[in-house]
Amino acid sequence: MLKKLFYPLPIAFLFIVGCSGQPGHNGEVEISGQISYDRVPSVLSHGGLAKLDYDNIKRVSSKNIVIKAIGRDGKTVTETTTDKNGKYSLFVEPNIEVKIRAYARMHKEGFWDVSVVDNTNMKALYVLEGKYHNSGTKHNVRNLHAPSGWGGTDYTKARVAAPFAILDSINQVMSKIRKVDSDAKFPQLTVNWSVNNIAAGGDPDAGQIVTSNYDGERGLWILGDANSDTDEYDDHIIIHEWGHYFEDQFSRTDSIGGPHGSGEALDIRLAFGEGWGNALSGIATDDPFYFDTSGYGQSTGWYMDLEGGAQKHAGWFSEGSVQRILYDLYDKTNESHDKTSLGFGPIYKTMIGGERETKAFTSIFSFIDALKSEASSHKRDIDKTVAYEKISRISDSYGSNRNNNGDSAVAVPVYRDLRVGGTVDACSRNNYGVYNKLGNRTYIKVKISSDGSYRFDAQPKSYGNQDPDMILYDTKYPHKDIGISQYEGSPSDTLSVTLKKGEYLLDVYDASYNNSCSRVSLHRESGMAKPNAKGKTVVSKPVKRRNLPRRQYY
After folding, report:
1. What secondary structure letter does DSSP report for 400?
2. Helix (H) or strand (E) holding 180
3. Domains of the chain, with CATH numbers?
4. CB atoms within 10 A of CB 217
5. Could you report the per-residue pLDDT of 31-70, keeping only the tens digit for each?
């Protein structure tokens, strides 16, 4: 029986294989079995078409999930987890009424805790369970199977397998991590999936989730809208979104989120984050064909080749370039431009090491700079792989000395420098789109030589509609934002903030999404700092604190 705790949905497959053997230790009776689910594979055809292949559904084991024996009073008698083959074993008292319940949850105390819940039903946890039976005095075998619900031309029964398919994709990428880091600990993750989850904006608790995404708060949201867009069997989609969770919890993500495409010229932070998610899906599955099924009967989706796909606007601003570079650095297949087969270990170590700690914004620059330190004997080959994507040799995490400006006059230099008493021009261009595209934002390095109160000002360089915003970031992990300029809808803006000696980054953009230029200045403010009773300097902070725009990772 599939349930969503605490709301039962009476559909189940229970296979009672029989009883055999002798009572277990201390007179207890063993109950064992195997948990499985229907996995619907994909079919990729010429022309970039991807669909689910319901004619070749496979029975797959549910690995590392929680299993409980439940008594008549509804309480847990005992519990365990399945192994890598979906098998479990537990012991109960003889001659008691129990049922076996399999939870859509992978849990190992201190190491991982992943659950699939129905976000449209009060976060109810999905479970699969059998009927009550008497444990008797001999070994019981109780197998449970979660069917897909496919009826030949459409879903005609509950899609019991979906939550377990999602967990299995996540288990696959977690296993990839554990192979290179057996001590890896995965912070708790909640996966929100429902047949009501649709590609529309609105109330996520009603299923209006826009698209499958990571919310930045240890939550995945997965589409489940049959005959439109379902993602439960699209393992690359699931792993892509999990990749954002990995960045957030293991490494670092500075991505500003928002809509994107592999052929677009993007903000460097977004380009890396999305390229990372795509590449990780291929790395975890050892399959470079990334697919997303959709449409009537899940038959009109699309796919792309992470390794050999056509280059579209290649460069340091392209998620397509990022995904090809990362996958080429990982895989064993070499081409004329790719003589490097690093495997996953150095990539993983770079992500949790140099990329996590970089002072720059996370990008292909910071990653490659850190990777060349991690895998120093492969520097030349790494440079060749990167160069194939029209990215000249990367010598630092800031992308200095760029030749390819992506046909954006304001995109290079990638970073500008601002000193106290100085100015720098920050221009926004929207020829590639708005908010998160190449040319929308100016990255500014700021060096503060002494503690104190400082003011950043942005003044218009010309007449017109513009609304400059400035966000200041600390360059020490976790690279938190310190503040955002205080005015909205104004052609000029200011940010007053207390700073300690050190390095900072300023992100300047036009919130009105117009083509504009502002002159940004930095001054130290006087008369605001006074020593307290202990002789320490106390500086007043801005009265008003604006919230940063909400970020969503697709």
Report:
1. -
2. helix 162-180
3. 2-250 (no CATH), 251-404 (1.10.390), 415-539 (2.60.120.380)
4. 8
5. 999 999 999 999 999 889 999 999 999 999 999 999 999 9
Q: Is 373 left (phi over 0), alpha (psi -120 to 50) or beta?
A: alpha
Q: How far apart are CA 199 and CA 222, in angstroms?
A: 10
Contact 258, 436 (CB under 8 A): yes
The letter for the amino acid at 372 is: K
Gap between the Cα atoms of 294 and 390, Å rounded: 33
The burial class, CB within 10 Å (0-12 / 13-18 / 19+), for 18 is exposed
Residue of 395, 428, 401, 405 lying closest to 507 (CA atoms): 428
Query: Which residues is 142 bridged to in the sheet?
Result: 16
pLDDT at 13 over 50: no
Cα 507 to chain centroid distance, Å, stands at 23
Q: How high is the pLDDT of residue 12?
A: 42
Tokens of 228: 């439109």
User: Could you tell me whether strands 13-20 and 468-474 are parallel, antiparallel, or unpaired per DSSP bridges?
Assistant: unpaired
Strand, coil or helix: 303: strand
List the alpha helices (DSSP H) in 36-134: none
Rounded to whole angstroms, how far apart are CA atoms 409 and 442? 12
> CA 231 from chain center: how many Å?
15
pLDDT given at position 20: 41
Write down the mean pLDDT value for the chain.
92
Query: CA-CA distance, 492 to 479, in Å (whole number)?
Result: 26
And the tokens for 247?
């960045």
The three-state (H, E, C) secondary structure of 233-249, written as one string: CCHHHHHHHHHHHHHHH
Q: Let me know: does 415 contact 360? Beta carbons within 8 Å.
A: yes
Burial of 199 (0-12, 13-18, 19+ CB in 10 A): middle
Indicate the residue type of 374.
Answer: E
List, in sequence order, the alpha helices (H) in 181-305: 235-249, 268-285
State the Cα–Cα distance between residues 243 and 280, nearest whole angstrom. 7
Nearest-angstrom CA–CA distance, 551 and 312: 26
End-to-end CA distance of the chain: 33
Q: Is 122 left (phi over 0), alpha (psi -120 to 50) or beta?
A: left
Residue 22 sits at φ, ψ, to 5 deg, of -115, 165
Q: Are 124 and 6 in contact (CB under 8 A)?
A: yes
pLDDT at 16 over 80: no
Q: Between 345-352 and 364-374, two packed helices, what is the crossing angle to 10 degrees?
A: 120
pLDDT 10s digits, 324-350? 999 999 999 888 787 899 999 999 999
Those residues whose C-beta lies under 8 Å from the C-beta of residue 116, and which sit 6 or more positions away, are 104, 105, 125, 126, 163, 164, 166, 167, 191, 193
